[in-house]
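STRUCTURE REQUEST FORM
Protein name: Protein disulfide isomerase-like 1-4
Source organism: Gossypium darwinii
Requested output: structure tokens
Priority: standard
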Amino acid sequence: MTSFRCFLVLSLVSFLLLSTVLPSISTNDEQDDEDLRLLEETEGKSVDIASLPHLSDSDDDQFPEDDEEDEDSGSEQETDDPLSDPYKAPQIDEKDVVVLTQGNFSDFIKNNKFGMVEFYAPWCGHCQSLAPEYAAAATEMKGEGVVLAKVDATQEDELAEEYDVEGLPTIYFLVDGKHTLYPAARNKDAIVTWIKKQIGPGIYNVTTLDDAERILTSESEVALGYLNSLVGPESDELAATSKLLDDIKFYQTMNPDVAKLFYIDPEVKRPALVLLKKDAEKICHFDGLFVKTAISEFVTSNKLPLVTIFSRESAPSIFESSIKMHLLLFATLNISEKYIPVLQEAAAKLFKGKLISIYVQVDNEESGKPVANFFGVSGNGPTIRAYSGDDAKKFAMNGDVTFNNIKAFAEDFLAGRLKPFYKSDPIPETNNEDVKEVVGDNFDEIVLDESKDVLLEIYAPWCGHCRSLEPTYNKLAQHLRGINSLVIAKMDGTTNEHPKAKSAGFPTMLFFPAGKKSSDPMKVNTGRTVVDFYKFLKEHATIPFKLKKAVLVPKDKPTKTSDSKVRENSSSVSSKEEL
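Status: completed
Returned output:
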């Protein structure tokens, strides 16, 4: 009996010792978990601001290695939801457009040597604009042995995946089942002209004056070769050039009278070539070696007007040109007549073939206003900007819009002597919020500070995803406000730019580690909760930090501080909101 009592006493003592020791061990081992639970479990509770997590430097963490990018870039491009507002298609005569599905696609390819296929979505605005043009082209090409068809990519997802459809509309031209991407303008005339060049010789003979007069009356841009023979090497070079240039019709003749009507001296040494345009510069004579590369370069350099009026129709000719240096004049319509001639004389004529001169009407809401916003141009103008298509850099001209200033600016632009221009909002007078406001002009000071680890959100004011992220992002910044080496920041990507802040969509999340600002920033590939962001920062921050446990103050048990004071200095923190 005595031994049994001793056993009970020893067991009781052991139990009491273990119950005292184990909680402390568990508490120490799970300290980090408690910190994260703090971020997750503050929903519905009032938190004394003075007791929010304080962060301090820690030597416990090692410097992390960068992870490889995973598939989710963390950047989303906002799009309209087609299901929320079903599109009602207008009445378009599409009797000659074949509707394709997975079931009949193979038969279509088997039965048609030549075909064109458009992948579309019923709700897509660009597809809606293309529909009447595509239908008209289908009707015209019906007699040429070319069938135009369409595939609803929202229904035929397997076909869309097979043909690598990434944007809408996507148009392919098929020859014996082999497909190539259609590269030209999305209107009936461009489609018909391009197809005819693919299936035909690419050039057309002009043998009579009646034919010549009809061409000059109906065509806005034509190239005519005055040749020794309509077959042979000269004709072959012209035909090969025609295949390269989709938007220009090429003709050939041996008739001296036809040549004269096209402003070619009948006695000139053949082969000769002329490009005619309905523009201030109506006639351009070719004086180079009569080979494909030289002819193509000549036509490309001269086919655009001296000053191109920017519009939806002219945009493809500008951006698809081999000339990537652009000089732009921004002005309202009522003052454009005064400044377009200055641009024409100071740049368009002097640097033809080296740059494209463009006029942008800033009071045109459809085409001019978006371009002006992209270049950071406000007001009525006149304003001069330059753009390099090879590296997407923009340049601003200072001073009045005069002949001498434009000429000097163009020379410096072509010589690479200009400093790039980046858009910026005014620097905020105060920047004391938890989330710091970054603009183009204070980007270096805040984001590229080598002593700070910086998390940057690039957002757009109209972006729904960005608005959804804002409460979570604010709460993250609130929790991290006590650490001097961490900055949580945001920048309006529609009105501010910086070479280190490139975004393909909104929001874009970038991380700039301390001491590594000369390298490209890291893409934040993580979820969109407070905890997810915290874990990312914990892993990738150059300067280690640690989240300490906070003291939570339940709403029904206020401290000695008055209720109003608690409400004033507290916030409800919830990190469970996701995009």
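Reviewer notes: The first strand starts at residue 46 and ends at 48. Confidence is low (pLDDT under 50) at residues 17-34, 41-88, 557-579.
Form closed.
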